[in-house]
Amino acid sequence: MFIEGDVDLSTQAEVDSFVGSSIAGNLLIHGSDIVDLKPLSVLDSVDGYLRVGINGLNGGNASLTNLDGLSNITSVGGLTIWTNDVLTSLDGLSNITSFGGHLHVAFNASLTNLDGLSNLISVGGRLVIKHNASLNNFCGLYSLLSSNGLQGSFDVSSNLINPTQQQIIDDGPCMPAA
Fold first, then answer.
1. Are 9 and 27 contacting, i.e. CB atoms less than 8 angstroms apart?
2. 3 state SS for 37-94
3. How do residues 38-85 score in pLDDT, each as one tens digit?
4. Which residue in 5, 6, 159, 177 has the fewest CB atoms around it within 10 Å?
5. In this predicted model, which residue has the larger pLDDT, 175 or 12?
């Protein structure tokens, strides 16, 4: 089912009752009781931005630990993962390979790595990764950066570690096995 316009899911009940395979607009997922995105596994594209959590107090997903359920999405216009207190993994995003907009990952206190982005090879806008207190592994960006797939600026700061683009490319452990 094709959904015209934006979709705003702010409760687990709304996530559970979602029906649709593609969205011609933005998808916003934010709510303190959202714990399971598996009901969204029927979704394969979001023409606008996929936003998991939002900027501001009481705007994120306080209980969401993973993005399982988003793994069938192959196409998004842009991606924002913002203010998800206990999110530990982006693995549910592993089928997204490119998008024309920005990539923002910020204020995710428990996120330790970006491995769920390892298939990403093209970002048309800026890449902003900030204020992720536990983030110490940027290897998920290796394919994107080593193929010169980032079209916009690179802004990484205030994480547990803050590598440059070149440090991510040059880091031997980030390179795929031969």
1. yes
2. CHHHHHCCEEEEEEEECCCCCCCCCCCCCCCCCCCCCCEEEEEEEECCCCCCCCHHHC
3. 999 999 999 999 999 986 555 689 899 999 999 999 999 999 999 999
4. 177
5. 12
Amino acid, single-letter form, for residue 114: L
In angstroms, the Cα distances linking 150 to 13, 45, 81, 111 are 37, 21, 18, 22
Cβ contact 83:56 at 8 Å: yes
CA dist 141 and 130 (Å) reads: 14
Q: Is the dihedral of CA 20, 22, 27, 33 positive or negative?
A: positive
Given this model, what pLDDT does residue 174 score?
Answer: 78
- Per the CB < 8 A criterion, the answer to whether 70 and 47 are in contact is no
Average pLDDT, the chain: 93
> Residue 75 and residue 80: Cα distance in Å, rounded?
14
Quick: pLDDT tens for 131-146.
Answer: 999 999 999 999 999 9
- Give the integer Cα–Cα distance in Å for 111 and 108: 6
Q: Six-digit token pair at 118?
A: 């390892």
Q: What are phi and psi of 123, to 5 degrees?
A: -130, 120
